[in-house]
Design brief:
The structure is a homodimer of 351-residue chains. By secondary structure, chain A is of the alpha/beta class. Helix content of chain A is 42%, strand content 14%. The first copy, chain A, is built from twelve helices and twelve strands. In chain A, strands 2-1-3-4-5-11 form a six-stranded parallel β-sheet, with helices on both faces. In chain A, strands 7-6-8-9 form a four-stranded parallel β-sheet, with helices on both faces. The longest helix of chain A has 16 residues, at 72-87. The model of chain A has no long low-confidence stretch (mean pLDDT 89). Chains A and B meet through helix 4, helix 5, strand 2, helix 10 and helix 11 of A and helix 4, helix 5, strand 2, helix 10 and helix 11 of B. Strand 2 (91-96) of chain A pairs antiparallel with strand 2 of chain B, so a sheet runs across the interface. The first copy, chain A, binds a DNA duplex (30 and 30 nucleotides) through helix 2 and helix 4.
Chain lengths: 351, 351
DNA sequence: CGCGGCTGGTGCAACGATGCACCGCATGCT
DNA sequence: AGCATGCGGTGCATCGTTGCACCAGCCGCG
């Protein structure tokens, strides 16, 4: 099953087979071409990737580094990215950083050593310094769910939803319903997009004539390492408990993401409140479960499929066309999905 | 950064470096060894995988073929498998079959062409005929969440929870609570473990002195291709609607998996019933969301982490030790996790 | 002294694909 | 006739690592 055997079978030289395989068949007799093609599928020949990569230095694998595919949000990204890659014959090497910065860096190093030249990085870190050395050597990086920062490598592509608009939509939805006491629940505002989401939240308040200072921001629980699935929901749950302990609890809550929102809902339920009646909750992401939960969750949808496709397309074009090496930011438009978890505020704040 | 440069730096031949790298250093002077080691990390040398694989035919990548990592259950598997693999320096190539048998086969072919010799296959198919040719050529296969069948390759390892025991625990829990009218909700019983789960369900009924014939089995909605996340939940939702339309609706429901159970809960809620009060629901898998849902879901836990670790261990031992080539079935013990979605039956069947 | 055996390493031919440089032939042009 | 040009394809060195076969040097032994 080597190129040699195909060549022998077709009565040509290995070079000619290689030429055909690599599209250098401008000046090849149609007859020759057919002989080779027949030989190829008679023998069931498949080029050896290792040999090909050794020779060319290229390969058709991209890396995906996510905090954890156990989290449905990242799972969805993995699924769509893989799907887009498959369509072009690319493969996806999956790496769960488990929110460990060191592991994240080690993974990128490993990928590079494996000959992977393009990586979609979903970093939980505000700085990308740890991968700079490789970027300088030619690693193509797409940052997902993280907008570009001043210190980022010049060639970086970042793909993200417009977080500020998203949470603004969320908060606006609540103020439109008549809510005046709102809370924003999140872990530490360590990452860029968390800050953005908070900014959108306060912008909406101001627009509605509410002094952001009077709005409650749920106390920050974790530090920077609360990017997980379990962590996010537990954070939400704990935050809900704290909010309920306030003298005048908020009637509307915007959560940093859906898993967190689900945790908030659970925490409110622990406190005897009914979500979508006593208190309104809005999430962010629109994971599959948002529409399954009881009550169904009002949330801000990220166009995940399109974003994943864009991530792959960007990487691909920089990988083989040696396309634009210039950095670029793609901001996708989020969409508010209204479901049952939001409603006008109850007449009285429940005890 | 080649082995040559390391050799030059250390004043030895490439062969010697290679020997050290591959543990053939029995008769090597400690001094020589140190010189090489110093050279390696002075130059930051990393062996070129492509070259190594070309030469040896081996590699340290395993394939994982799942229906879709968008589904939290498979996401969790991916996460734990990847984690186990990482600890031994292996990588995981992720493949979403999207429940398409053809895509499943194509993926396995691709993996083989990539030099991947070990694959964890989460097949939605009852027969593994489509990958037999490669197994005969030496592909090591671990079937996950699918017990061995008569026609399976002799070398196949299968890893699964004991499905019959699991659903028996689930149904028994309901009968112990006093439920007498039970339903089993599932898609087509096309796969092995679905049949097993159904078997455990009926076994529990018999043990409780209930004639399985009088128990309701929710009508099958999909065909064989309802293994997805969205599909499973929608199936559950539709099934719940149908069950509610019966003259005497069941008071206890066992679902084929958690996503399906969540769909059932949603369907019951659509019908105005309260889960955990009017009707009891038991799931299967214990995904993270089972504990987040409202009400929290009673379910049968699969020891996912251990199962994933076992999958990797099995594969690994067959890959490099050329360990036992004999097939093997590993059945893990499931555990019933009681939460809020189950309770004694209400006094009267609600209208 | 001469031979065998051990020690600590080295030489070299692969693995399979690639793509540049090159080649023989025929045709066209002046 | 002499030279350039186009056509259809081939030769060969190369990518980085591996591991078998081999080799010098030394020791001990009869």
């Amino acid at each position: 099953m080597t190129i040699q055997q195909v060549a022998t079978e077709a009565g040509v030289s290995p070079s000619t087979v290689s030429n055909l395989l690599n599209g250098r068949n401008h000046r090849m007799l149609p007859e020759t071409r057919q002989r080779i093609e027949r030989a190829i599928d008679k023998l069931g020949y498949r080029p050896n990737r290792a040999a090909r990569q050794l020779r060319t230095g290229r390969n058709t694998t991209i890396g995906l580094v996510v905090p954890s595919v156990g989290n449905p949000f990242w799972g969805a990204l993995a699924r769509h990215l893989e799907s887009a890659a498959l369509a072009e014959g690319y493969h996806v090497l999956l790496c769960n950083s488990e929110r460990d910065p060191r592991r994240e860096r080690d993974y990128v190093d490993e990928l590079w050593a494996d000959g992977v030249h393009g990586v979609v990085l979903c970093s939980s870190l505000p700085s990308l310094e740890h991968v700079m050395p490789l970027v300088e050597r030619g690693l193509q990086l797409v940052a997902f769910d993280r907008t570009s920062q001043a210190g980022d490598p010049a060639s970086l592509v970042s793909i993200s939803v417009d977080n500020a608009i998203g949470s603004q939509l969320a908060a606006q939805h609540l103020t439109d319903l008549g809510h005046r006491r709102l809370a924003f629940v999140s872990g530490a505002l360590a990452s860029v997009n968390r800050k953005e989401r908070y900014r959108g939240f306060t912008a909406a308040l101001e627009q509605a004539g509410i002094d952001p200072a009077t709005s409650v921001r749920a106390p920050v629980k974790g530090d920077a390492d609360d990017f997980g699935d379990v962590e996010a929901s537990e954070l939400g749950r704990a935050a809900a408990a704290e909010l309920l302990a306030l003298e005048e609890p908020p009637t509307g809550i915007v959560a940093i993401n859906d898993m967190c929102a689900l945790g908030v809902c659970r925490g409110l339920r622990d406190g005897g409140l009914e979500v979508g009646k006593d208190v309104s909750v809005v999430g962010f992401d629109d994971i599959v479960l948002a529409d399954l939960y009881a009550p169904t969750l009002t949330t801000v949808r990220q166009p995940m499929k399109e974003m994943a496709a864009a991530a792959f397309t960007q990487l691909r074009s920089r990988l083989d066309d040696s396309g634009p090496t210039q950095g670029q930011s793609l901001l996708f438009r989020p969409e508010l999905i209204v479901r049952e978890s939001t409603a006008p505020p109850a007449e009285r704040t429940p005890s």
